[in-house]
Amino acid sequence: MKKDTINIYDIAEMAGVSIATVSRVMNGSEKVSEKTRRKVMEIIEREGFTPNVFAQGLGLNTMHTVGILVPDIADLYMSAAVAWLEESLSEKGYECILSCSGFAPEEKQKHTEMLLTKHVDALIYVGSTYAGSGRSEDETEYIRKAAKQIPVFIINGYVKGDNVYSSVNEDEEAVYEVTLKLLEKGRRKPVFITDSGSYSALQKKRGFERAVKSRGMDRTEEMEIHVANSIYAVRDTLLAAGKEIDAVIATNDTIAVGAVKYAKAAGKRVPEELEIVGYNNSDIVMAVEPELSSIDNKTEQVCRDTVERMIKVLENSGNIDNSKVSVSCRFVERNTTHIN
Amino acid sequence: MKKDTINIYDIAEMAGVSIATVSRVMNGSEKVSEKTRRKVMEIIEREGFTPNVFAQGLGLNTMHTVGILVPDIADLYMSAAVAWLEESLSEKGYECILSCSGFAPEEKQKHTEMLLTKHVDALIYVGSTYAGSGRSEDETEYIRKAAKQIPVFIINGYVKGDNVYSSVNEDEEAVYEVTLKLLEKGRRKPVFITDSGSYSALQKKRGFERAVKSRGMDRTEEMEIHVANSIYAVRDTLLAAGKEIDAVIATNDTIAVGAVKYAKAAGKRVPEELEIVGYNNSDIVMAVEPELSSIDNKTEQVCRDTVERMIKVLENSGNIDNSKVSVSCRFVERNTTHIN
DNA sequence: TTGTAGGCGTTATCAT
DNA sequence: ATGATAACGCCTACAA
Question: What pTM was computed for the model?
């Protein structure tokens, strides 16, 4: 039985040079005469030779691969983010290993370890669920541990630590501003709805509360609803609560759609009697009727920037790049609000 | 500077055995005495040793990794499929490398080659775009070429070839039946709308045409519309066409939502004046108003089955498993039709 | 049951 | 500019 794949020795032999020379040609070293380079290249191309990545990895301890962790790739926001990340990474010559961890802490850790085992060059966590609630440092300990081995990047969440780079949206500000506008236009019974206790959800909540208080209103527990991330769950929760509400600020678009469904079920006109603001400005905003006003958190930009930073960190490792980057959001008004 | 990672030699030394023994313990070989096994295991665990995957790969020529190709991970159907695939693969101890190829033939081929270069154990193509239009064998040649090296699986598309395993939905039948029902209920101006000329789109079209003809109607060019995969594009195309239509069969849910938007813009009541059927039964069906009737192509089942088959093929390689599996679809009626 | 040694295909460090 | 050779860390005949 013959070898199945051609290797550097074969090429060396055909070209009548040593493997060292072939390696130099492959890696674009200067120290090869133009003549030999051409000769070797010709054979490499003719034979369609590509170096064995395992052997390369063994020596260099890298396979130009990055691990992407995501709680749920079927989620609109996450899949959009992964799409941008993959594109950017691919442009830069990196492959990505996708790992869907779910939301459970043990699983997040397990998937992280799995990826480290594969010797990826960096880790990118997508979604603020990985940043925990901020209540305890322990929640994010596994991230710092990973960061001891390779640089770690977080999309939309802040985790403190050496070698961990965060990219966060100015969610507090965005929610503050939009809530304030709603109140200024006369809304009196706003509710904040979230499905999560993550870093970013907390930022948003803070923005909401700040706006409410700044208008001299009492912020009450009743103004804040925690619910599963499902259209029907939101609709039914609101119906069951039976409260008077005239504005909804949701921490994602799915929840906001649930609010629209609630309005329909309860016979409330949107936006006249109930204004609704979503978050993420995902593709679903167009599907709903009326079309959803939403806060755009600039996924594309954040993802591109993150990959850019990753490359920088990887190339001049030791770079003291700014470890936390903020990007502002943009309110996109459609037909579920009327504040501009 | 010290070595950064502990290796099999270190463990062997600590345990006072040879590396061969450590290797045997790691791989669960029978030929190790219970005593040494325990001693070695203890040290392995204490040190948290994990074998270097590159070295393993170099020898065994596998890293327990599969390549997943997808034209667009931000698409609802694709991301749902990838979610199921990743979950199943992960359960079986496989990692997945995600590659978003887009729809261009050269890119599909390039991404395929990239993945082969990484020595993945198998390739999974998600979406019938990879199966081409069926007009020419050339379109899918790159798939057969890949299949010479590793088994190839296709989710929702059929490609003929050795070592390529297809999983297809009975799309023709599904569309035939639903179209027939619509016609039987009195619809006279149905249109079929697609964004694609893929294998599965063609199956669907065939089902549509068969139903139309079976009712003694003339199938005309006008009944079939090709359009970009965008809500607004569909809406505007239908508005511009200004045709009388009373039923829409769409090849995906996004297109169907576009039809709903058209109905609203044109002042047609759904489903009374216009019935609309989507495809994929994706999450978006709930967001629209009225909620979308859609054909469920059982993504979860197809993905799980595919991974199951993959494992089988990988384990007893040479297995002559059935290379084409069909799964039937299920029409899910919601509020854009009234045929049941 | 255990150990020795060769091979997997690169890259990199020396000589030359 | 080029070649020989030693890592890299694992697996697995083959020997003992």
Answer: 0.95
